[in-house]
Design brief:
Elements lengths: L9 E5 L4 H12 L3 E5 L3 H11 L3 E3 L7 H15 L4 E4 L14 H29 L3 E6 L12 H21 L4 E8 L8 H5 L1 H10 L8 H12 L10 E4 L17
Parallel strand pairs: 1-2, 1-4, 2-3, 4-5, 5-6, 6-7
The structure holds nicotinamide-adenine-dinucleotide.
Nicotinamide-adenine-dinucleotide binds next to helix 1.
Amino acid sequence: MSENRFDGMTAVVTGAASGIGEAIAVRLMAEGANVAGIDVAKDALERMADEFGRSFLSAPADVTVETEVAAALDAAATRFGRIDLAFNVAGASRVGAIVDLAESDWDFTVDLVQKGVFLCTKHEARHIRAGGRGGAIVNVASLNAVVPMPAGSPYSTGKAGVVMFSKTAAVELAPDGIRVNVVLPGLVDTPLVAPVLAYEPARDMFLDRIPAARPATPEEIAGPCLYLASDDASYVTGSSLVVDGGWELSNYPDLRRLGG
Ligand SMILES: NC(=O)c1ccc[n+]([C@@H]2O[C@H](COP(=O)([O-])OP(=O)(O)OC[C@H]3O[C@@H](n4cnc5c(N)ncnc54)[C@H](O)[C@@H]3O)[C@@H](O)[C@H]2O)c1
């Protein structure tokens, strides 16, 4: 592992209080960066601030609310003096068959996974551009951007939008020296999917499809995200990196067969 690739840099991580976002934040700090963690989970952010001290800023915000996003980014820039890197990771979903899905569940999910990435990228890019040194933004979508999740239409649709949004942002922000890439994780062992992994029939259906025969650890997603933000990826922009243990090759399980 390269050490200190991000010495002296400031990174913003949304969804930093748990799972993949937390793993990204911890790895960034281990490699020399200061991190502003954005999340709705204030208590967890405070615990991280206590644990990591001056390197970590707790910047609570709901990524779907532009005023909160802008204030959190301003707080990060004030505290650390610069913003170089951003990782847009916050996400969750509400599920349901299309014929039964409530409009509010669609709006909740698409707002969170898609509009949240737009709002964060908008304000992150303004700060990175103001620094005049360029930088990188990594958006976390999902394998479901390219492989449909039955009963997960708002999530799959929202995540597919994140891929195209990232490509568009890569083109728009290239003149400012800002690279934008997107990571598509498969199944990752985090609190988000803990109920699925705890229910053996569902877990078995997933693992049947994954050639690696196990979920990823959050750290196994953080590594590829940090690669895309690093100088090793200096000529990589607008690309989509699938990190799924080969799952894309074997399709998504249809959990509706479990009933209930
Ligand atoms: N776990 C997986 O299998 C998996 C697979 C593919 C993609 N992903 C994606 O990875 C990302 C991280 O997921 P995770 O598995 O680490 O989940 P997680 O639940 O462990 O972490 C998600 C974090 O996002 C935060 N969050 C939720 N809504 C928010 C909001 N409106 N504003 C700010 N923060 C908010 C939560 O508080 C939480 O800390 C998500 O975008 C998810 O869709 C996860």
